[in-house]
Amino acid sequence: MSAQINIKGRTTGTGIAAVEWAKRCQALGAGELLHASIDTDGTQTGYDLEFTRAIADAVSIPIIASGGAGTLEHLYEGVVKGGATTLLAASIFHFRKISIREAKEYLRDRGLVVRL
Questions:
Q1: What is the Cα–Cα distance from 38 to 31, expressed in whole angstroms?
Q2: What are phi and psi of 30, to 5 degrees?
Q3: I want to staple 107 with a disulfide (CB 3.0 to 4.6 A). Which of 3, 36, 86, 112 is the partner?
Q4: CATH of the domain at 42
Q5: What residues contact residue 10 under an 8 Å CB cut-off, 6+ apart?
Q6: Domain-located, residue 105
Q7: Maximal CA-CA distance, the chain
Q8: Can you name the residues that pair with 75 across neighbouring β-strands?
Q9: Quick one: which of 63, 106, 107 has its CA closest to 88?
Q10: Measured distance CA(69)–CA(42) in Å, rounded
Q11: How many other CB atoms are there within 10 angstroms of residue 37's CB atom?
Q12: How many domains does the chain have?
């Protein structure tokens, strides 16, 4: 996984590997990490599962997957395949493609813990 941390509205790369940065953040006391993949953010084609999994496997703190959810299956995959403990989704709810209730029921019906 060679994803790097970007700054300045995600337009400037820092050369810092995202997984190494996640480890450093944890060592500095972060309680959870939210990441967004530039490649999938806003696309509704699914989370960057490889990126999410790489970070989740590298640290022991909760990971929030962000960027790319477009279907109910994407939400499920973010947890099961990506290793996220929390999901961030915007477009699917803003454009009323899926309701929050529908998403929670879908995930709960598949055995995931969902806050009501």
A1: 23
A2: -60, 140
A3: 112
A4: 3.40.50.12600
A5: 38
A6: yes
A7: 41
A8: none
A9: 63
A10: 8
A11: 20
A12: 1
